[in-house]
Amino acid sequence: MGILQQLVRCTTRSGTMGLPKRVEFCASAVSIYVCSRLARMKQKITICIVYVCAAIASLCLLKSFPAGYRSSEMALIAITCALLLASLLMFRWPGVGHWLGLISGLGASYWFYHIEFSYLFPAINTWVVFNLPDGMPDSSRDILIAKLKIAFAVTSLAVTALSATRLLPAHWIMRKRRVRDRFWPALAVCLLAVLFWYALSVHPYRIPWIVDAVSAKLTLLHVEKDGRQFHETGISVFGDGKVYLSHNDRRLFQYRFPVHIGSTVLSQDNITRKAAFALAEDLANANTAPPVPLHSNAEGWYVRTQHRHLLAFTTEDGIPPPLQLLNVFHALESAVPATKPSGEEKDVCLGFCYDPLAGLGIVYVNDRCTERNGTRCK
Asked: Is 342 helix (H, G, I), strand (E, B) or coil?
């Protein structure tokens, strides 16, 4: 019923007696009616925007998807068309639009689930792609695809949750308002689902590459933690006498952190080289607690031998490092010339996943995910 019809109906019932009071009542009723229609229109526009955003994310992912995956291409095309059609039906037949949106959202979520949570999960997933260094081949392209996947997943979840909420019974009331008229329950469900996916994916720290390289004969790592600040210096000695030193001053809640690297070559008769190899043999049979991140303001010394024997000496555990280890570390540190900037490392956990194992060079998928045919990482 239009606004003029409401006014005519009210004034006709009132007659000539009590006209001002009746007109005031009718004006109030018309005002409530108009506000209600505006609120419903705002809800339709909001849901339509979410549908269109999901369709755009699907289309962008389709363009970036590798060629040759015809089944995936057809699925993304169907999802895009269904979402666009649902957004158009929203203003004429909202019920049909909500049902089509729900079916499209469920289909998109099901398709993404099989793409993301395949037999390679969690070793390789969308989130750890953000740990790729900038210098790696195709890292920019891989990160772009990861961003599109996240956008697709978030919008698909939003479409599913909003459509399901709008289809709830009208008599479901929460705080004097129908549940299906509220947006925050659907958004809360989306947020919790994304956080759960993120938590399953990012730990432990790893770079989604498989790298087979010669292991260092001895790797030493010194970590100092001061509040949110970490000072890390790692030194690797190889069997041919090459020595590499890396240093960073990373902080928690920091995605990127610069790394400085230096190198040198020690001759066969070098005293420091012989001392480093002797230390590796002496520590090969030693046993300590496994390397874990420092939680308080503390200092830690970590060791990795050629056969991946790991040791940890930290002030948190009250275990001091051997004097021989300290002497070798400082001798190797003095033998390496001044370090130079060598790019940046990244941690999608904002520093909370980067641990002593990463500082010891155990960063690639084939290093961190070795159990259950590479499907369990630690």
From this structure: strand
